[in-house]
Input
Amino acid sequence: MADTLSDVPEDADSDSENDSDSSIIGNRQNKIVHRLPSYSDSEQCANEGDDDDETLDLAVSTWVKTNKTPNFGPFTGNPGVKQVPSEPTKVSQVTGLFLVHTFFDMLCEETNLYYLQNQEKYVTGSKGLKWSDVTAAEMNKFVSVIILMGQVRRDKLKDYLSTDPFLDTLLFRKIMSRNIFEQIWWCLYFNNNELLQQSTNRLFKIQPLLDFFLERFQTIHKPNQ
Output
């Protein structure tokens, strides 16, 4: 056979294989950032199944981590607390910086307005409490009760103001009656519902609340850079 095919160069097959292999390697090199090391034909054939793993290991091993400090530019602000309460150790003094009288006035205005717009839904029964406009003092007590509920856990809302000896928490009933609490709870609102159709803001119903606290945070404290 060797004599019959003697006119064919002995390295013809190897050259075609080399060309094929080199094209494959070239295609693989186009897919990665780093150049692959050279291999002999025998080593390439022997390790053909492991080429992808070796390529991945090579690419991973040559990554370099560089920490770059962002340039924020000069900071000319004066950070820190802008309003300090007269007695910083008292909780009431600190919360008073955020929950000012305008906050409770806003809640009262929108809550009373919501009841007027939907009073047919809240028909009082024989034992029900006739509606009376919520005052700022009552709204202040209502918010206080809501905050205290986070400290004392009950299964149901009515249990907080229950007279059951097993559930009774006298502090809640001292702050406000159950009827007044439920009256505010049912009608608590933060924005004029009749303007909802005219707005595309998905946060419309709580937007006044967000705006109020954003203004208070910006007034009381200025953050650092």
User: Anything to note?
Assistant: The first helix runs from residue 12 to 30. Residues 1-8, 20-34 have pLDDT under 50 and may be disordered. Residues 12-60 form one domain.
